[in-house]
Design brief:
alpha+beta; Arc Repressor Mutant, subunit A; Jelly Rolls; 2 domains; 3-stranded antiparallel beta sheet; Anti-sigma_ChrR; Anti-ECF sigma factor ChrR; ChrR-like_cupin_dom; Anti_sigma_zinc_sf
């Protein structure tokens, strides 16, 4: 069960079609496995359709969307919301193979990466698959910009908690962490970065000039 979700603004931007293709993919993968967020987006989609039909008669208050999402959060999830959703279908179609059989490139220590930015022509962000070996640790780092990540397989832990499969997390230059893969399988994530990470370890920070 997912415990870490996109925030309300991200879901509204997704519903409105305002997100970049890589960010929309991250949220789509989360929605396929999270009935709670799927219910919220369904409601936002319905609300958007009504507003489009009634323009320009509808007046929207500043806190209208927050009130609607709060009401959604207070409602129990319906049993029908747990209908099976395709696992990894969208990503497998994009990559053309299972994520465990991709041509991973060893980066640092327990971390392997695969840059898939070229699958999103015209996008300014870097899109990267990252694999942290089971029980392995990633180098301590912070972020020069914003990083949006969804866990595709396994789980990792840092000072903010444990992030399991399909959990969603957004980090920025205020966050410094050293993820550790937990469980008995490799942890694979999909990340969208507006700027390269910044290594903060005593020795690894010397590699920062070479990170792109």
């Amino acid at each position: 069960m997912t415990r870490h979700h996109p925030d309300s603004l991200s879901l509204m931007e997704y519903s409105a079609g305002n997100l970049s293709e890589p960010h929309a993919l991250c949220i789509r993968l989360h929605l396929d496995e999270c009935p709670h967020c799927r219910s919220r987006v369904d409601t936002l989609d319905s609300l958007g359709a009504v507003m489009m039909e009634q323009q320009p008669k509808v007046t929207v208050s500043e806190n209208m969307f927050d009130n609607i999402l709060s009401a959604i959060d207070s409602e129990p999830v319906r049993a029908s919301d747990f209908a099976p959703a395709p696992r990894m279908g969208v990503l497998q179609k994009l990559l053309g193979d299972d994520i465990n059989r991709l041509p991973w490139k060893r980066q640092l220590g327990d971390v392997s990466v695969l840059d898939i930015t070229d699958r999103f022509p015209g996008q300014s962000e870097q899109v990267v698959l990252q694999k942290l070996a089971a029980g392995g640790k990633a180098p301590a780092h912070t972020h020069r910009g914003e990083e949006t990540t969804i866990v595709l397989q396994g789980a990792f832990a840092d000072q903010k908690g444990v992030f399991n499969q399909w959990d969603f997390v957004v980090l920025n230059d205020q966050d410094e962490h050293k993820p550790v893969a937990v469980g008995c399988e490799d942890c694979i994530t999909l990340s969208v970065l507006s700027a390269p990470v910044k290594l903060t370890g005593t020795f690894t920070r010397m590699l920062n000039p070479f990170i792109r």
